Automatic annotation (TrEMBL):
Matches recorded under Pfam families: LPG_synthase_TM (PF03706)
Official protein name in the record: Lysylphosphatidylglycerol synthase domain-containing protein
Domain of life, per lineage: Bacteria
Sequence segments annotated as region (Disordered): 521-543
UniProt KW keywords: Cell membrane, Membrane, Transferase, Transmembrane, Transmembrane helix
Keyword Zinc: no
Length: 543
């Protein structure tokens, strides 16, 4: 018997999207803080700080990030061992890496991570409830690691909390009390041997051996992630690893509470406020930019290429039975992964157009001005359209797949035409190659505008557009605004190009919002929108 759900009421819709508006308001507050603390710095100052980061630091940070992601795969492995449902490690590692690669970038880890895990674990016999328990175990392990890091730091270096004005003696007492609570959790399995009942489902309390591994795993993972940030900062004796670890932990907590995707803005503001008393703000921002590239963007692109590679291998006639089985299990998650990659690529194009160009190649002169203007404008338009199309890609719409390929090619070409900026062209180019062989996954026909943004995509879109606009305002804050600026066309008129592109981006975003509202109002109230199954709803459908 098919399971039907009543359409949401206006009150429920207001609550869902009202929460999104609240999250965007928190982001706005974080951006105000960033602007205030960076008031005396410019983009040129941040670029100078970036130039002081050595290649050895980048290699060490990349290695630490790789080990951190390997530890994240052990989260899932430990969760499956706790449930007594062992799976081959290679499959667990593939699933865990993919889920973390873009839940880190888009946020909503408990939702996105659970969806990816269900897509990839279900073919191996795990039910929706078991996947939900794996997700709960993983989130708990992460929170335990977060709760373990601070007490350890307080005991090793009580002065590390000086940014919070906590006396060393009080920090030591707080650390001892927190460790006592964690020890109680670790040994709680000796007494809580009967499963706990939560919403009618039995959830077993971790055995002591599992609980201790949770604490150690979470501690090591967060320590390595903080090490990545520490290695990304320009060399300085004023900030220690303990200082960065405390700032990193506080920023993670703030990012989780705010629910802003990827903690964008909120995470950065907390790190900036925590470290600037000892380090210049431009150095901190440079480290944060490199950290997000290494720990967020690079894994996301790799995950997209992995899924695109599976689709490319499946398209070959010489494919074997084992590869077909792997592809059959991976294919359901391809649209979700590629949607995340397309969204981040769109944001990447917007961010790159919001900052001034460092230099243009020597052959570029006044005759190349129309080419530069066109490439900047088309790159911004392609970026916002990719962001708006990402949710339709997740829904497997063929039209969204075609348009995304065109826009990715446009973004790549615009980067090359504005002066051969091949580093910027790499990201849309790689996602284009990952999306191209996945044609068979996008078989649905329909109107893109008849699929309104869900609250999570609405929030992510708002965060990306607001952050790009703030970045542009910050980049050109030292330029006096005037009416003539709108009609200023020169090779180095980056501020004018940003203003004109921002108007286009705003008009496109507003037009898309109005089109979605009109489409939603004109639909039959009884018409049900087909949604991608979550881990629990999908389980009900298969019963």
């Amino acid at each position: 018997m098919a399971h039907t759900e009543s359409p949401p009421t206006w009150t429920q819709r207001l609550l869902r999207y009202g929460t999104g508006v609240l999250i965007l308001a928190l982001l706005a507050g974080a951006l105000v803080i960033l602007n205030r603390w960076l008031e005396q710095y410019s983009v040129a100052d941040i670029r100078q700080a970036l130039n002081r980061i050595t290649g050895v630091q980048l290699l060490a940070a990349s290695a630490a990030a790789a080990v951190s992601y390997w530890l994240l795969t052990l989260y899932d492995l430990l969760a499956l061992r706790h449930l007594r449902r062992p799976l081959p490690y290679r499959w667990v590692a593939f699933t865990a890496f993919t889920s973390y690669a873009f839940s880190h970038s888009l946020g909503f880890a408990s939702i996105i991570g659970a969806t990816v895990r269900y897509r990839l674990y279900a073919p191996h016999g795990l039910s929706g409830v078991e996947v939900a328990q794996v997700t709960l175990f993983v989130v708990t392990t992460f929170m335990l690691g977060l709760a373990t890091v601070m007490p350890v730091v307080m005991l090793i270096d009580p002065t590390a909390l000086k940014a919070l004005h906590v006396p060393p003696a009080s920090a030591t007492l707080l650390g001892l009390a927190a460790l006592a609570i964690l020890v109680a959790y670790a040994v709680g399995g000796f007494w809580l041997r009967r499963p706990l009942r939560v919403f009618g489902h039995a959830i077993a309390f971790p055995r002591p051996s599992i609980a201790v591994r949770q604490l150690l795993l979470g501690l090591c993972d967060l320590s390595l992630a903080a090490l990545v940030l520490y290695l990304c900062l320009p060399p300085s004796d004023a900030v220690s690893y303990a200082d960065v670890l405390v700032a990193f932990g506080l920023a993670l907590v703030a990012g989780i509470i705010s629910h802003v995707p990827g903690g964008l803005g909120v995470f950065d503001a907390i790190v900036l406020v925590s470290l600037t008393p000892a380090m210049p703000g431009n150095d901190v921002m440079a480290g944060l930019l490199v950290f997000r590239l290494i720990y967020y963007l690079a894994p996301l692109v790799i995950a997209g290429l992995m899924f695109g590679g599976v689709e490319a291998f499946q398209a070959r006639r010489r494919i074997g039975g084992l590869s077909r089985g792997i592809s059959a299990a991976v294919s359901p998650a391809v649209p979700l992964v590629l949607a995340a990659c397309i969204f981040i690529t769109g944001a990447f194009l917007l961010f790159s157009r919001a900052t001034p160009e460092e230099t243009l190649p020597a052959p570029f002169d006044a005759t190349a001005l129309p080419l530069v203007e066109m490439s900047h404008f088309t790159g911004s338009v392609a970026g916002v359209l990719l962001i708006l199309l990402a949710h339709a890609v997740q829904r497997r719409l063929h039209a969204a797949w075609v348009l995304s390929l065109i826009l990715l090619a446009t973004g790549c070409a615009s980067a090359l035409l504005k002066g051969g900026d091949w580093p910027e062209a790499i990201v849309p180019g790689l996602i284009f190659l990952a999306l191209l062989p996945a044609r068979k996954e996008f078989h649905r026909r329909g109107n893109i505008l008849r699929n309104p943004l869900t609250p999570s995509w609405f929030i992510a879109t708002g965060v990306a557009l607001a952050s790009a606009f703030w970045l542009g305002l910050f980049s050109y804050k030292h330029i006096a605004f005037s009416d003539e600026l709108w009609w200023h066309f020169t090779l180095h008129g980056d501020a004018s190009r940003f203003l004109r592109a921002s108007v286009a981006v705003g008009v496109i975003a507003l037009g898309a919002a109005l089109a979605h509202l009109v489409s939603a109002a004109s639909r039959d109230p009884e018409e049900r929108e087909e949604k991608p199954p979550g881990p629990l709803t999908a389980a009900r459908r298969t019963d």
